[in-house]
Design a protein that fits this description.
By secondary structure, the chain is mainly alpha-helical. It has two domains: 34 residues, no CATH class; 138 residues, no CATH class. The protein is built from four helices and three strands. The chain has a three-stranded parallel beta sheet, with helices on one face. It holds the Pfam family Metallophos. Keywords: Glycoprotein, Hydrolase. InterPro entries: Calcineurin-like_PHP, Metallo-depent_PP-like.
Length: 187
Amino acid sequence: MIIFFAEHANNDTITRRFCSLYLPPDSCEFEDEWVVNVDLGTKPDVITPSVPSILNESAVIVHVSDLHYDPTYTPGNNAVCDAPTCCKEDQGRPTNPSDGAGYWGDYRNCDSPLQLVNSTLQHIKQHHQKIDYVYFTGDFVYHGMWESTKEQHTQIITSIVRAFNETFQDTPVFFALGNHEPIQANA
């Protein structure tokens, strides 16, 4: 909204005043034009999967989303903490055992351990024998984006893609990135 207003307002003073309602005044300097050059490289070949005829067949599609795998999740560690996310290896054991993170995950301020991700995929595979396609629509990465690096994101995404491909070996899996996959700009 601020950018739209800044780009369409006729009076620079009004634009700065409006901006300073939301941002510190020294952040409200707008330049008229700027360019970002992006090398898109070579466009990959398009692979079109075979799609069943809607009139004659139906397809079974498994849709998975928002796994939020946290590689630092540690069963038994503190699930009730003052941090935005809990159950991490560096948060230690709680004084009250009922505040400990469960082996399969924890509904409190925790993301998913790898054993939950793998168990979920195995459960889907075992209980749905005929799957035509698997869609994973993002949010591979845990919620603590401010404490992660590009390398950690790459490892998490690689682990999840590998788990899907190993579980659904003969089934096409389509991946999309979610809002948690981008790494912060200053990393």
